[in-house]
Structure formats: C-alpha cells, structure tokens
Amino acid sequence: MQEEKTLQQELRTAQRKTAKPMLWISIISMIMFFAGLTSAYVISMKREDWVSFDLPQAFYTSTAAIVLSSITLIIAKRLIKQNKLQLSLIFTVVTFVLGLVFVWLQYVGFNELKSIGLYFTGPESTVSTSFIIGITFMHVLHLIAGIVVLLVLIINQIRKKYHAEDVLGFELGAIFWHFVDILWIYLFLFFNFIK
Known about the structure:
Layout: H1 2-44, H2 57-81, H3 85-115, H4 127-158, H5 168-193
Helix pairs in contact: 1-4, 1-5, 2-3, 2-5, 3-4, 4-5
C-alpha cells in the first residue's frame, strides 16, 4: 500500500516536471504552422490577382481586448501567488470574458469584410482575402482552445486547486493563453505591415 502511494507520488512528480516542456514543444509546433501560413501569404503576394486592403476596424478593437486579457491574466496569477484567491478568480473570469469579446469582434470583422465584397471562397473571393480570413480563422480556433483552457482554470479556481504553493496548472494555462495573444499580435502586425 505504501509502495503504491510512493509510486503515485513519483509519477505525479514526473508529470509535473514534464508538463512545461511538453507545452513548449506544442507551442513551437504551432509557431511553425503559422510561420508556414504567413510564408505562403508572402509568396502569394507576388501573384497578379493579389488585392491589398485594410483590415476591418473590429480587428483593431479585438487586438485591444486580447492585450487587455493578457494583462488581467497576469494579475490573476500574481494574486494566486499572494493567496488572494477570490480576487484572482475575478480577474480570470474577466480574462475569459475578454476572450469571448475577442472572438465576437473577429466575427464582426469577418462580416465587415463580407459587407465590402471580400469573401473567403467563391467567385468573388480573392487570394488575399482567402489567406487573411483563413489564417485569422485558424487563430480563432486556437483561441477557442484557449477559452476552454480559461474555463478549466476558472473551474479549478472555484475548486480551490490553485494556491501560493501550487500554481503549475494555472501557469500552464496562462502560458498557452499568452501564446495565443502574442500570436494574434504577430498576425495583426503582419497583416498591417506586409502588404
């Protein structure tokens, strides 16, 4: 019985040691994926049928929401380390809401593109709109995964799983969320300056 308990503790310790490196390996693969997409975008810009256009205003507003969401999550983590768990939960919920606002604003942005005749597919679509909408949509899928992660963080905070001595699970979720945020900032700047 004691040996089984010791074995379980050793397994848990090993899992905790490998959690961050595994997350970073996943993030590196996602970086490579988006690097490939943006490289294809740059190469396709040389096509004669390439059409340049400004990003929808909603994408600018969504960028502000996503940056603010990273700030609120940083505050939430600091509050956990200070054992101010209820206040931390509030900031995590605010982060979650800002994530939902970001997704909604991306939807608004897609509709802005459609309203000016820029479509993802079909006879009226262009290579440039297909790339921008496709890449942005792939980011939104990753962000939805991040929203699920935030929901798990909120549930775990309600269950009091995080505290000053144990923030690993929260840190892992925060790392992923910040990655998705930084990825959007990269894409936003890329689409604005590479025309």
